[in-house]
Amino acid sequence: MRKRKRLTMVIICVVALCVIFGSIRAFWYGKGLHKRISQPFDEAFYERYEQKLPKETVYDFNAEDFKLADRRNVLTVNGYENPVVLWSSKDEEEIVLKVNAAAAGTYDLILEYQPLINDFQQVSLSLTVNGVMEESYQNIRLLTKYRYQNYQFNTNGKGNHIYPEQELMNVFVADTLKHGLSSHNPAPLPVPLAEGENEIRLKLDSGSLYLGRICFVRHQEPVEYAAYLEMISGNGKGEKQNDSENSIGEQFLLEAEQFYYKNNIDISIINKNNYLLSPYKTNKVLLNSIDGKTFKNSGDQLTYYLDIEQSGLYYIGVRGFMPEKSNSPVFVDIKVDGQIPFKEFCRARFEYAEKLTNQLQKTPVYLDKGVHEISFVLNGIDYYEACAEIETIVDEINQLSMNIKKLTGNNQDKKREWDLTQFLPNLTSDLEKWEETLKEIDSKLLAITEGKRTEEIQNIRFSVTQLEKLRKDPDRIPAKLSILSQGSSSILEMLSKVLLTLNLQQFSLDQIIVTDTPDGLPMDHSNLFYSIYEGVHRFVKSFEKDQKKNSDPENTVDIWVKSTRQYMDVLQCLVDEDFTPKTGIQVNLSLMTDQGKLTLANAANKQPDGVIGIDSFYVNDLAVRGSLTDLRTFEGVNDVIVNTAKGSLLQMIIDDKLYGLPQTQDFYVLFYRKDIFEEFGFKVPNTWDEVLLMLPALQRNGMNFYNPLSSESAFKSWPSTAPFYAQFGAEIYEEDGSSTIIDRDEGLQAMKFMTELYKIYGLPIQIKSFYNNFRFGETPIGVGNFSTYIELKNGAPEINNRWAVALLPGRENENGEIERWCTGGSQAVAIFEKSMKKEKAWEFIQWWLSEEIQTQYTKRLQNIYGKEYLWNSGNLNALRQMPMEAADLNVIMEQVQWVKEAPKIPGGYFAEREVSNAWNRIVFDDIDVRTAVDDAVMISNREISRKLEEFGYMENGVMVRPYQVPTIEDVERWLRDE
């Protein structure tokens, strides 16, 4: 017994000592964690910094010298001392400069200008030198400075940072022309001038600007570091050597998220929940780092200012990490006062770091007393050169695949023998060339990573192995297209994956370091004891109640949002900035991941005042049970309806009452591969009859057409079947909602056509991924929606500019009009019947769905998160302003006019299911169309009758009151009767 007590006491003592020791270690670690204070953002630096332009310009031109086509718009503007010329890409005017060079040489071209752009479009120009326009002279992007409107980041009621808005800096910029965008080289563009007269032509490709001055300076490459030290020593600088003994202890920590300007609006800041980062606060969302997923492309630039009090040599570095790309270093041009001071700062290397790491460059730079500008410019030219070679191989593989399909009709029978090399004499040499090129790229990448393997290197090596297999027996390639170009493990797919990631550097930054000694840097390693303390602290904090309290609960509406937090946070900002100040109504937005909780909340009488972002079909499920209020009772509802696609409302109408409005608008359009259509001479079909006519030619060449009926799921929902009923003029239900009528002639014709597409015309019954088949060219044409558009825009670099969209194929009606009906399921908004603040909730809904706010919301999303965030607004006037290519937008806007949702009635889900069952029975079991549809009608009507009785529309099989099935004509009648 005593031994047990002694053992227990020993254990207690050991534990106590560990706790005490750990607490002491955690305390001292925490005390030193953020011992060094970062430099605050200082607006005054914008005024105090003097841009250091070259003192000696060889040739100089001002606004009076610019020769425009027919006129000179010479103006004076505030903030610039010289005259300027207004230059716009819309005018299609070139500026022509005549330069009489005393001697041949290369020069840098410097422009002084102020961008005048809207919607954050990029300003770019092209250059012609003595009649020559090289690739690097095209699409030259001019430096455009963006910043945040406020660097004292606002907080919400929970103490979390709110993402700030960005703005264009309306200032004059003096910038050296860089290489064109296709070169991916952020270095200055050397312009060659011959002895004697030279003609320089500048053409503005996009945007507009005030142009004040153009000058030429001699092109100089950065010097070696030894030469740089000699140069500053010769100027009486650099006497102070920076080492631990002579250091005066000057160290500047600049918060990376508080840059003074950037050149790409897509570069974003982010919160990372890591106590090593600054700023950090337990259980708070603080914006504390540059998002490496947005700071990733060659040429992306971040610029900082700092005030040096003591002249001397200073090391420059960062606290950062790059966890997304294993073993891949990042290369950065470091500019000081607009120039790269020496060669070691050109493509300066920062090693791969999965976790936060301090990295200083080994060569210090001289900074004299005063304000200096330090810029970090990503330079991935080595990666991009490899990508360019891989892209050429991808193009050639695509072409080879098409040629093989032409010759063989895509016959992949393994027993069939082909003499392929007779028809494609360069086949073997092409395979050898690709193999050697990939091996050379592999060697270059290994040199960059210093022998460390990356995912891209692995994929390249796999492709080389596969090419070796094909090269050994090229005549067997038709039976091995899955190795060459088709499938998830094909050479084409592997190289496409490399293209997606190889050129991205993805550099996440916490702080910028400028120090006169490499010693005494901030902590960049975690501590076990402090991690335990922080974990416990975070757990305890999670039980604290939200501090946000509304001072006026009677004037506050609760809105539940089915969305992601990023989208909701942007909306909350707009509410706080615009809606609440204008109306005095406060809005509590709460994130909801499962819309099914609304039914439970309503049953428990804990429902919100309103909801946004729920599926439009779910509005009907709530409304039929009396949970929602009729929006037609509110003043101004028709002003909202008139800007929507009328057919998108049908699922939200019951008994001539409207219970929801579309927040977003989906659409279906025709996607097609321009390159394949051009190669085979195909024409884009306008009707389904034209689709049927082109199918033999597609199938003869081993390709096919995609329709949503070919989706992987066996259940064919209304989005894939309802368009055919609408295009054939078939109604799904009786006018009074008593039964389904898909067995009438029009309905039978629709089902017959839907099934014959597969039984007779040979459409593929199942395609796992239209996105992949479209990329690989197996299905070069098909029907897709907004999600397909986003996927192809952002995830298929190998077919950039090789595809387009067109209107959905339709059927010609008796008046000769082509009806292109499609579904367009949307997110919706609604107000709860039990709410005591319906009018206030409606005021919020009306504000939220307005053109002004929807347009502003779209811009704000892209402003904060980048151009990949497209918002397909349900307000058609706002949708028309969606930032995308004009040709695509025109197609989408026309197709949206043909949106027509399948209306919902009680029990109608059985009609949807039985239409799907009938399609499967006809296609797979070869059941007669009439028999399958009759069975579907019988089963569907049984359930419809049961649900109509449940909701009081029917008694003992007899309709006691009609369930008015909504139509587009009903919506148009509302607008006429206003």
Notes on the structure:
The chain has 978 residues and is of the alpha+beta class. Among the domains are: 44-220, Galactose-binding domain-like (Jelly Rolls); 227-380 and 505-528, Sandwich (Jelly Rolls), CATH 2.60.120.260; 383-501; 557-665 and 825-896, 3-Layer(aba) Sandwich (D-Maltodextrin-Binding Protein, domain 2). It contains 27 helices and 40 strands. The strands form eleven sheets. Strands 1, 2, 3, 5, 10, 11 and 13 form a seven-stranded antiparallel beta sheet that branches. Strands 14, 19, 22, 23 and 25 form a five-stranded antiparallel beta sheet that branches. Strands 15-18-24-20-21 form a five-stranded antiparallel beta sheet. Strand 26, helix 11 and strand 27 form a beta-alpha-beta unit. Helix 4 packs antiparallel against helix 9. It is globular. The model is unreliable at 240-245 (pLDDT under 50).
CA radius of gyration is: 33 Å
Q: Any guess at the CATH architecture of the domain at 557-665 and 825-896? A: 3-Layer(aba) Sandwich
Mean pLDDT across residues? 86
CATH superfamily of the domain at 557-665 and 825-896: Periplasmic binding protein-like II
Straight-line N-to-C gap:
92 Å
Strand content: 15-25%
- Which secondary-structure class do the elements indicate? alpha+beta
Q: How many alpha or pi helices?
A: 27
Helical fraction: 25-40%
The CATH class designation of the domain at 557-665 and 825-896 is Alpha Beta
Shape: globular
Q: Please give the number of β-strands.
A: 40
Low confidence ranges = 240-245
**Main beta-sheet annotation:** 7 strands, antiparallel
CATH topological fold name of the domain at 557-665 and 825-896: D-Maltodextrin-Binding Protein, domain 2
